[in-house]
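The data layer described in this paper is built around a simple, fixed record for each protein. Such a record has a labelled line for the sequence and another for the backbone structure tokens. For reference, a complete record is included directly beneath this paragraph.
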Amino acid sequence: MAAPDEGPTDAAGALWHPSPNCAERRDGAQPDMVVLHYTAMACAEAARDWLCNEEAQVSAHYVLSEAGVLWQLVPEAARAWHAGAGAWGDVADVNSRSIGIEIANTGREPFAEPQMAALERLLSGILTRWEIPPERVVGHSDTALGRKIDPGVRFDWRRLARRGLSIWPERAAAGDFHTDAARFGYVVAEDGQEAAVLAAFRMRFRPWASGALDDTDRALMAGLAGRWPVAATPAV
């Protein structure tokens, strides 16, 4: 389903800049997740134009510049091509179940204040429109273990959590880290990805931590799994 040449945006203040790289959501799915990315490009406009290039075969619903300028490339009701191979809980086709937001950043610098404020407004609207709970706002690094690291260690997840737009862990009685990680949503698709789970978890919730798996990791993951499990029975 190609995006129209002209059309209204879903988000207030967004500039319509349609991408041909989209389709209908498969099997009648509706978005129940938001996936955050960084662009890893020189500027927001370059990322926007690449995501609108038919040869790229990638897109996102939104691109957000450092100054807070917001472009909508794909209607929220349509399937953008931003997540690629990956999973979260029982969701194997992340593109059909999510709204993708590309945030202009190389991954090496802090995210600008106007950009974060615009992201908060955008997320607030999306979560309200689609009745998405804050625990379903995730990073590309969460869904693509060992393959993607965005939005990266400089992204302020705790700020979003304080505003009810994401979540932040509290300690619980430590259990088995990887069992709790599966309950929370991390999907180990192949042998050897266990280390990638710890890396993704720390990138988001303990970006200052290093070294081997420790009791703080276990306690925080137990807290996440206990409060926000994606399923009653962990994937194995």
Summary: Residues 158 and 201 are 14 Å apart (CA to CA). The mean pLDDT is 94. The helical segments are 44-51, 94-97, 113-130, 140-143, 157-162, 177-184, 194-205, 215-227.
